[in-house]
Amino acid sequence: MYIPSGELVTILKGKNIFSAIRKLFKSLIFRLFVTLFILGVVPAMIVSGVFLNAYYDRAIAVRTTDVQNQCKIISNQIVASDYLNSNKSDTIQGELSLISSLYDGRIMIIDQDLRVVTDTYNMEASKTMIVDEVIRCFKTGTSVHMVSGRFIEVAVPIQRVKDESTGATETLGVILVSASLDSITDNREVLSDSVSLILTITFIVMILIASILSFVFVHPFKRLTRKLSAVTAEHIEDEIHESAYTEVDQIADAFNQLLGKIKLLDESRQEFVSNVSHELKTPLTSMKVLADSLVQMPDAPVEFYREFMEDISAEIDRENAIIADLLTMVKLDKTQAEMNIQSQNINELLELILKRLRPIAKKQNIEMVFESFREVVAEVDEVKMTLALTNFVENAIKYNKEDGWVQVSLNADHKYFYVKVADSGMGIPQESIDHIFERFYRVDKSHSKEISGTGLGLAIARNAIIMHRGAIKVHSEEGEGTTFTIRVPLNYIV
Asked: Rounded to two decimals, what is the model's pTM?
């Protein structure tokens, strides 16, 4: 499908914007900023909201208490002056008007018949007043209050002592007061405006603080990133030192450890390349010398030519063996995760290996003995396990003495199976035991022309055993022989 260039540019810009936004959200600076901002602003908002609500509730409670106290005073005066029956008292009328004006509200006095005796609004006088608060007040004999819109309604009973000996009282009427909350609401709005101003200032201050702290916190990581970026293959020797935070220290230490491993790998790679070059060059040099000798002797007899060609053929075989082992090593390194695990009879596997190697052992008149203590079935990769065990047995034959012996034994417990390969060979010096599994490493005695080898067999065998989560132990005495003990789990561990 053809996309116009303009649309393509728009699409690319959209992708870039999306990528930038995603990168921003994943940024540590952004996350620290948001966290610090939330920790600073949200508590301030919650506190301000709680403060305003607490003020409002407290102001209403105080207003309610004040109205109740005023009503109790008037109630006593009403009882004393028998106001409910005569409805004549300038003092009470004046106090009612004062309280009504003070609280910008309305006061009604209601008798036992629910008749309105007095109404400061002069709207309900002599009328019957059936209100829930009034009825509840008559029934309970206690004050009742509630908030209704921008007013509080308070009902206070008018009581007299009926029996002084028992303290029993009689409710004669009710004072019903509707007090305005406008002043409280106005004060709350003023406070709210002040709180909003404080929150705005807090908002701005927290943005500045969060921004500064975010950059301060992240700056050591940026310095560490720059130092990490500066480390290249040419500056692999340079270690990172950054000690702003414990976490930065840990990252720097981990990276320095990684650098150390890279150095070792690089040294190992260089050594490996050097060894490969040496091992491949040696047969080529021998073949070159032999070929040059033949060229310089055009009239040499046929037997002489045949002898030289046999030597050249042997060197070619040696070259092929080195290349084959190198390919095997590379294949094992590349396919460590590719294990074809199946249940295998280890007894049969070892018998097949020994059957293949007996002709080689027979040439040196070496006796091979296989000892099995039980039938062993384990989960292994048949190809890799055969390769490993073959190398151990072949190594025991190769570095043995004439008329010697090789003993292979198999045993198992509930968790592992054990293969022991012992020989009567030349043995390994103690200083060389730790190096025999290194690629191209050879014990000094093995450099002899009589013993061919690439120096890769044990390295290949070790890799195969490790891939099976196994382990190898070596015991050797010079002049007496060597014993390899291989331990492999019966069940493959992923």
From this structure: 0.45
